[in-house]
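= Tokenised fold =
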Amino acid sequence: MPMARTLGLRFVHAEPGQIELEMPVNEDFCFRPGQLQATAVFAIADFAAVAAAGSVLPQGWSNATVDTTLKLVAPARGRCLRARGRVVNAARLLTVCAADVWAVDAATGDETLCATLLATARNVETPGMAATPAAPATAPQA
């Protein structure tokens, strides 16, 4: 996704229902030197949570954020942000997902929780992307 590239997001770990992303602290996204503005923090949290939700969808399905709540709990400063997304509850139409965002200290690598997000993703069957059933080996007899 172009937005993910712009933010410098990098997948660190992925498995069904769990995603870990990192994003460098880029001065272009800071509101004071070395401290990311809330929009960038929201973005990595949203990407991590909704990507985790997408990781459990069947082939041919995609998803999109429909609702979120972000709580900022500490400054987002350091070498990078690390977001860990997870599925809370997956259903056919909606998936509730969450992410915690950690600021990683440049000198020590220590993590400080800086935000937590709870989201809902809408699951959508993507036309033309669904797996098609195999054709019968022989034509049915009339």
Remarks:
- Residues 38-54 form the longest helix (17 residues).
